[in-house]
Amino acid sequence: MLSSSKAQFELARRLQGGEAVPLGEVFTFLSGLYFRGKVAYARTFAKCEPDRCAIWVITSNLGLVNVNEPFTLKQLQAFSEVDIDHADPRYRAPLERDARRIRKQFPEAEIVLLGSISTKKYVDGLLEVFGPQLKFPTEFVGRGDMSRGGLLLRCAVDRQELTYAPVLGAARRGKRPAKLTPRKYTHLTGI
């Protein structure tokens, strides 16, 4: 979609023109509400000093990458060469390498996973490194991608932080919660 010569939207034109674009902008475009909610929530509630803070994105081949890191179209295309599979060392080794680096840099930090908690692909490698430091929003249990994205965006707008629990030993699957009441956002400043 981004590399198609028929694509006329701004992001595709920028990337095809050789511009490097922040990873968060690209992933927000590709996954819409789901990733937009994650980024808005993380930017709203990250608890760290500005010069020592980062929001990391799990990638298929580069491990954990800062959401603001600029990427070219060629670099983005390389993501498709490796599946996100907890058993594939091309995915797992960079993920664990970066997790160890983050743990060393922030030894006491609470690490909150805003991705899928019900599959091994994200949890296994991170849990091995962070152990009880790795937390997740308990409100994620039973929710699909779009529901989690909507919940995160709503919480960011309302400045309502979710409840976190350690991933280690937690029930990560459960009954589907009630659907979120639809809401219209006319202007989202600073998110």
Q: How does this structure look, described?
A:
With 191 residues, the protein is mainly alpha-helical. It has one domain. It is built from 7 helices and 7 strands; from the N terminus they run αβααβββααβαβαβ. Strands 5-6-7 form a 3-stranded mixed β-sheet. Strands 1-4 form a two-stranded antiparallel ribbon. A two-stranded antiparallel sheet has the order 2-3. A hairpin with a 5-residue loop joins strand 2 and strand 3. Helix 2 crosses helix 3, helix 3 runs parallel beside helix 7 and helix 5 runs parallel beside helix 6. It is globular and about 45 Å long. 25% of the residues are buried. The model has no long low-confidence stretch (mean pLDDT 86).
Brief synopsis:
This protein is mostly helical and 191 residues long. It has helices at residues 10-16, 23-31, 33-45, 73-78, 89-105, 120-130, 145-158, and strands at residues 21-22, 56-58, 64-66, 70-71, 111-112, 134-137, 164-166.
Shape: globular
Number of helices: 7
- Helix fraction, binned, reads 40-55%
Tell me how many strands there are.
7
Unreliable stretches: none
Order of strands in the sheet with the most strands? 5-6-7
Mean pLDDT: 86
**Main sheet record:** 3 strands, mixed
Q: Approximately what portion of the residues adopt beta-strand conformation?
A: 5-15%
Order of helices and strands: HEHHEEEHHEHEHE
Tell me the Rg in angstroms: 17 Å
N- to C-terminal separation? 26 Å
Question: By helix and strand content, what is the structural category?
Answer: mainly alpha
- The number of distinct structural domains comes to 1
